[in-house]
Amino acid sequence: MLGLPNRGLKFEPGSDRITGKTSNDVRHEIESLPASTPIEDLVRTFIFYLLSNLFFPMANFKIPATIPSVADNVDEFLTYNWPASISEFLTIEFNRIGRNFSKGTPLGYINGFVHILIIWFLEHTTIHDPLDEHLRPRLVRWGSQIKYSEKDLSKLFGDLRKNQIVQQFVGVTDLERTLLQSSTVHPEPKMSSTPDNVLQIEFHQPSSPQTSPERSPRPSSPVSSPKISIQPRTRTRQPTTRSRAAKEKKQTADVNLKSLQAACKKLRAQNKSLVKKLSAVETNSTLLESRVKALEQTVSEMREKENQKLQGIDKFLFEHFPTTYTAFQMGNYSDSTSRTISEHDVVSPETANTPEDVTHPKKFVSHINKESVNAANLILVPIIESSHWTLLVGNLKNKVWDFYDSLPKKTHRAILPEVVSTISHLYEDTTTSFATDIRRWRIRKIKQVPTQKNSVDCGMYVCKYMEAVIQPEAVVWADVKDWEDNMAKFRAEFAYAILSTTIK
């Protein structure tokens, strides 16, 4: 299906070490190559894209460190058996998913060239005819218009009929079929250089018909039965004596001894290298331990400063709202990322579920129907992932998703699968409320927005993002770069609005 030779070494991408680039970076790089790019750089970039985005894509968009070395050396790329390597990697991934399924644990994402399994299914069934059954490689025979949702896919296998399964593979040329059906390849006869005293041997067919059972017809070989010239033996074989056998045995032992000595020398060198690496690892471990302690001390000091700010807010609210802000709430506040610090995780003394303990998720979308969607312009979806808040805004007019992140780091790109999953669940839970498939909308990252300078204000930034995007006039982000300086004021304003019931 790949159109690559099925021979060579097995390639193992591994996942222990990764590069600084992501597969999306490589895709953008190859899209922006100028026309004047030298052919060597073009080939290297294309191989890098082929391995990172098609052959061995990872669910977290990271690239194993083994891939760039292959992309930098075309000769090394040609030494690997890529079809077998892709097949073995997919087998390992599916076995991992199978073990998780049997244990009842979350399945996770599958790494590797999963899309090629779809091509394999299409070319072994008659559900979709190829655009051109003679295209090479075979994976390009079907266009990109064939797309399935999870619901359609389960129905596809359930409705599959026996007569839709291909019994014989089609799309093979006559030349390929001849090569596949030929059992042997007859070599051309080599003529002897000394024609004296040559014995002539001729191949001929038996005159009587054979009585063996009939077999499937096989095309006859294009090579006719030749006359092969065989020169008679002119030299007799020397008898093996005991002394000669002993000599050969000694020579074999000497060769084995040299090989063993070379292997021992190589092992000693490897052991020396491993000892050196182990010493470096221990040194790095000691340095990391000291850095972790320093980081913990810094975090502790930041928390102490944050607690002092919150105590000041408590005092302000208790003095100005003595009847509403009771003594129970004094010191009983949540972390800015809405992950609770203590057992008291709600403002009210009444018990309530935390965001992780939602038992009836459809209640949160029960108010979404066709009427409410038609009357709205935006969909606001706050998302929390690994104690970090981000905002997803759906623009119903432009049919696009805008993603807001107050900590725009490369490490936060791993949240994109969670964003896609949130959109998918929202669409499925609201059934036919939307006129278009919101899962197919483009997701764009909003840049030049105000960003935080600490690790505790992401929740407030999401609130401010929502407050800004719902305004009738388009917000100019360059005019609101002072959010970090006024964060204490914003907290007090939001607390006042909540306590005054102006926010519902």
UniProtKB/TrEMBL annotation:
GO terms for molecular function: deSUMOylase activity. Keywords: Hydrolase, Protease, Thiol protease. Gene3D superfamilies: Adenoviral Proteinase, Chain A (3.40.395.10). Residues 221-242 have a biased composition (Low complexity). GO terms for cellular component: nucleus. Residues 265-469 form the Ubiquitin-like protease family profile domain. GO terms for biological process: protein desumoylation; proteolysis. The keyword Protease applies. Residues 204-252 are annotated as: Disordered. It holds the Pfam family Peptidase_C48. Belongs to the peptidase C48 family. PANTHER family: SENTRIN/SUMO-SPECIFIC PROTEASE, ULP1 PROTEASE FAMILY PROTEIN. This is Ubiquitin-like protease family profile domain-containing protein.
